[in-house]
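Bench notes, afternoon.
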Amino acid sequence: MRRQNGIHLRLDPATMQRVEALAKGEPSNRSRILREGLDLRLSFESHAALMREVVESITAEAMTALRLEATSLLRGQVAASKAADELSCQRMADFIDVIGAAAPIETKPTKSAKAPRLADLPRGDL
């Protein structure tokens, strides 16, 4: 393990030897050192890009699963709410039927349906 800028890098032994050889490189081998350093940098960048893709893929799959689960829960909640409403309406109808059977509603005649009073009748009709 090598520490660079506060970041721990885990390298296989062969790569570690290449990094150490580059660190000890002589000025006469500058082009080889730059080429090797570039190869290592590209290798690290490709690993980082691969890890980003993996994380994004896992995140996208997790978000899709969460959305599906949330949709399923909402559908279940809506179905339960509808069932509760239907049961509530049925219970109210049953309650009204029971009350109606126990105490029938009597209608009172309206003023227009009242029988005429004797005093209100014309005298010739007696």
